[in-house]
Amino acid sequence: MDKRKCLLLGEYTHPRFHPLQGVDEQISHILNDLMIVQCSENRKMLLTENISGYDLCIAYNELWNESVSPQQTAGLLSYVAGGGGLIVLHTGVSLGNRNELAQLIGARFGGHPPYGPLEFRTQEHDITEGVGSFKLDEEPYRFEFDPFTEKTVLLEFEAGGQWWPAGWCHSYGLGRVVYLMPGHHEPTFLHPEVKKLLLQAAKWAARIPTRQ
C-alpha cells in the first residue's frame, strides 16, 4: 500500500521566531510510520491543484505581518471542507489574520506572556488517549475564539492560577482540524507526550484507522 502523504508548511528563508529547520526533521520522524512528509515554505502549495494530493496538511507558517493570498486561502478552505485533514501548530495560528482562516482554525492569536515552564493537562478524546499530564518550557499563547466554531478542547495549560486552552479539534465541512499550541522550537517535539499527541492528531485529522 502506498504511504499517505503529508504537507508541512513553514518558513526556512525568513523566519522571525520559528524556523522550520529542525522542526521539519522531528515531525517527519514522528510521522514516519504513518505518512511521507513533504516540507515546503512555498505558500503556493495551498492552491487547490497543489494541496489536493495530500491526506494531511500541517501548518507551521509564520505570517504575523502578512497574509496568504485569496487564492491560497480558498485552496486551504476547500481542501479541508472537502475532507482534508489540517493540523495547525503553534505559530501556524498566524494564518488566522485572515478572517476566513480564523474561523477554519477556530481562533486567532491573542498575544502571550513570556516563555517559561508550563504544566499541561489533557481532556478525554481519541487524540489524547494515553497522553498524561506533562511539563514543558513553552510560549503560553492566548487566543480569541471564534464564536461559531464548535470545538472540543484537548489540552490546557496552567498560568496565573487558572487553566487556558492549548489545543482543540473540530470538524469543518467533511474535513477535520486540530490546533496544538506546543511547538515553539525543536526541543518541544522531542517530548514523548508531544510526540504522542502529534501522532494521534495526525491519525484523527487524516482519518487513519488505529491498528488493533
Keywords:
212 residues; alpha/beta; Rossmann fold; 9-stranded mixed sheet; two-stranded antiparallel sheet; 5 helices; 21% helix; ThuA domain-containing protein; Class_I_gatase-like; ThuA-like
SSE arrangement:
Elements: E1 4-9, H1 23-30, E2 35-40, H2 48-51, E3 56-59, H3 70-81, E4 85-89, H4 99-105, E5 107-109, E6 116-122, E7 134-138, E8 143-145, E9 152-159, E10 162-172, E11 175-180, H5 192-205
Parallel strand pairs: 1-2, 1-3, 3-4, 4-11
Antiparallel strand pairs: 5-8, 6-7, 6-9, 9-10, 10-11
Describe this entry's structure for a reader.
This is ThuA domain-containing protein. Pfam families: ThuA (PF06283). This protein is α/β, with parallel strands linked by helices and 212 residues long. It has a single domain, classed as Class I glutamine amidotransferase (GATase) domain (Rossmann fold), CATH 3.40.50. 21% of the residues lie in helices and 30% in strands. It has 5 helices and 11 strands; from the N terminus they run βαβαβαβαβββββββα. The strands form 2 sheets. Strands 2-1-3-4-11-10-9-6-7 form a 9-stranded mixed sheet. A hairpin with a 2-residue loop joins strand 10 and strand 11. It is globular, with a radius of gyration of 16 Å.
Q: Detail the poorly predicted runs.
A: none
- Record the strand order, biggest sheet: 2-1-3-4-11-10-9-6-7
Look up the CATH topology.
Answer: Rossmann fold
Tally of discrete structural domains: 1
For the biggest sheet, the summary is: 9 strands, mixed
By DSSP (H or I, 4+ residues per run), the number of helices equals 5
Helix content: 10-25%
Q: CATH class, anyone?
A: Alpha Beta
> Helix- and strand-based class?
alpha/beta
From the N-terminal CA to the C-terminal CA, the straight-line distance is 18 Å
